[in-house]
Amino acid sequence: MRKLIYAINITLDGCCDHTKTIAPDETDEKLLEYYSELIRDADLFVYGRKTYQLMVPYWPDIAKDQSASKQDRDFAQAFGSANKVVFSQSLDDADAKKGDKNARVVRTNLRDEILKLKQEPGKNIIASGVDIPSQLIKLGLVDEFRFVVQPILAGEGRRLLEGVNLPEKVQLKLVELKRFKSGSVALHYLKQ
Length: 192
Known about the structure:
Blueprint: E1 4-11, H1 29-40, E2 42-48, H2 49-55, H3 58-64, H4 70-81, E3 83-87, H5 93-99, E4 103-106, H6 110-119, E5 124-127, H7 131-138, E6 144-150, E7 172-179, E8 185-191
Parallel strand pairs: 1-5, 1-6, 2-3, 2-5, 3-4
Antiparallel strand pairs: 6-8, 7-8
Helix pairs in contact: 1-4, 3-4
């Protein structure tokens, strides 16, 4: 069975709004390598419309940009080759395909679709963003959590699991911790 991994950048005060976090740059090549390795071990990304529209066309454009860093292009190429499932009631499939030929829009039941995807052959599935992953966590469908905690106190912005009432506490087991030059820390947890 494929694993569903939730991966997100988060500030020390729990903010995961992409406008409040910092993007890795060439001064922290190991952090960029960490992200690239994570997505190379996956062949499917699960997003809501908002997160999808943040990722595409940004990363496909970076893949074609010869002035972009090698690390950014490597990440962009790995991202571009993976399939994407976008859960949306407002985005249509043609719009998603314009930005990424590997994307498809799904309007069916989130739980049923994810259970079906987990049964299909393939590599890991990565979920990112806030809304869809929060629902997946509430449904108990996330197997691993990958948080990159950044040395920032945002003071405002969207928080992880904001407005979500979990039916029960989710116990996690730390299996890996990596420190980076930027002061960011990657935490890898398994659901127990």
